[in-house]
Amino acid sequence: MASVGLARLVRSASHVLPGRLLVTELFFEVPRNHARPEDGTLTLFGRAVRKNERPIVPPSPEAAAKTQLPYLVYLEGGPGFGNREPQNHPLTRVALDRGYQVLYLDYRGTGLSTPINAPLVLSQGDEEAQARFLKLFRANSIVRDLEAVRLALTEHFDADKKAWSILGQSFGGFVALTYLSKFPQGLREVFMTGGLAPILRGPDEVYAATYKKVIERNEAYYRKYPADVAAVRRIVDHIIHAGGEQGIPLPSGGRLTVQLFLTLGLAFGGHGGLDSVHSLVLRLATDLDQAGKLTRASLAAFESHVPFEHHPIYALLHESIYNTKKTVAQPSDWSAQRVGQELSSRFAWLRDPGFLRSTPQEQPLFFSGEMVFPFHFDGSAGPELKQMEPVATRLAKETEWDEDLYDEEQLRRNDVPVYAVSYIDDMYVDFEFARETARLVKGIKVRETNAWYHDAVRSKSDEVYATLFNLRDDEID
C-alpha cells in the first residue's frame, strides 16, 4: 500500500444555511511531503455539508452521535480551482437526497488550501527548490491528502462505513484514477465526468489530438458567427498598431497581446463557450467603432476570460498532468507550443510574429484551446505569472517526477465500482484516448454521448447526475 501521512483537524465551525443545509468548515494540517513528514505541513480547507434534520422528536445525543452518513467527495477540475460554496453547487441536493453527506475539499495549492502564489513559490529558494516544491502539488500528493483526511473523518465510523465515494470532474477524474491506483481500499465507488485521463499517452500525443478538436470548434465558431472573421481580424490589427509587440496595458498589470487574445478559445469546449467569446469580440469591436480604442471596462472583461493570473498553479502544472511516469524519456518542453507550431498553419501566430502579412484577409484567425504557452509567463497574462517564469521553464524541462501517477496493473484488477460519463465531442479530454483508459479499468461502466460538452456537469447537471446514478443503479443482467 502507498504511504500516507496523518491529517490533523485544527479548526472547524458549523453553521446552518437556508434550505436545511448544515455546513461545517474544516481546516486540516497534512504533511507537505507525505514521504517526509518532518518537512513541515500544509493547510487543507474543505466544507462538509449534510441535511440539517429537525425531526419532531429529536434523537438523543448518543443516537445522533452514531449517525454515520457515507461521504461523497467532489473532486474539482483544473488543476487550480477551488470549490464553490455548497449551497451553489448542483451536486449538493442530489447527493443529500440520496443519503450522502458531501465533502468539498480544495486541493493543496488551490482555493483556501495553502494556495500557490508567487511569494510562496519564490520563498522556497532557487529554481531547483521551487521546482521540487511545486512537484509536491500533483495528483499523487492530492490523493494522499484525500486518504489522510478520510482516515481522520471516519476514525470512529463502523468498519463497513469507513470507505467513501468520490466524484471527479475533468482533472478530478484524473485524480480519481490516481486514487484508484494507490488507495482503492479507501473507495466505495467512483463517479467521473469528462475525466478518463489519457494515461497511456504523453503530452505530444495529447496535444496533437486536442488541437484537432480545437480546429473543429473554431470552424463551428465562425459558422455560427461569420461576421467575426472580420471583427477578430480588426481587433488583432488594432492590438498590433496600438500596442506593438508589447501589447495594450491591461487594468491588472498585464498586456493584451495578439497571442494572449488568441487564447480565448479555451472557452470553446463548454456549453455556451462560442457565445461567450462572440460577446467579448462584439464588445471589443464595438469599442473600436465608438471610441476608436479599447476601453478599460472591455479590457477588464477580457481579463476575466484569462484565469491563470489568479490561478497560477493551473499554468504551472497543467502540462505536467500528462507526464504520467516517474521518469520520462523526453521533457514536455512546452509541448502545446511545439505541437501547435508544427500541426497547422491555422496556428501560425504561435511561431511567426508577422503572420498577418501572409494571412489572407478572408481567412479566419483560429484561437487555441486548453493550452499553456511560454508567453503566459512573459508578463502579458499578469505580473504574478511573470515572477514565476524561471520555475515554469524549469518544470517544462523536467524528466524526473516523484512517482508514476497511475498503476496500470492495479487498474486492470480493479474491484471498486466505477461509473463514468464520456463526451464524444470533448475538446479537453480526447474521446479515443478516454476509450483506451476505459478499456484498461476493470469493471467500469461508461455512458458515451455526443449530446453534451465537457462542462455538462455544471450546465446540464440534473441530466448528468441522473445518468451517473442510473449507471450505478441499473443492472444489465
TrEMBL record:
Keywords: Hydrolase. It holds the Pfam family Abhydrolase_1. Residues 72-232 form the AB hydrolase-1 domain. It comes from the Eukaryota. Belongs to the peptidase S33 family. This is AB hydrolase-1 domain-containing protein. It comes from Remersonia thermophila.
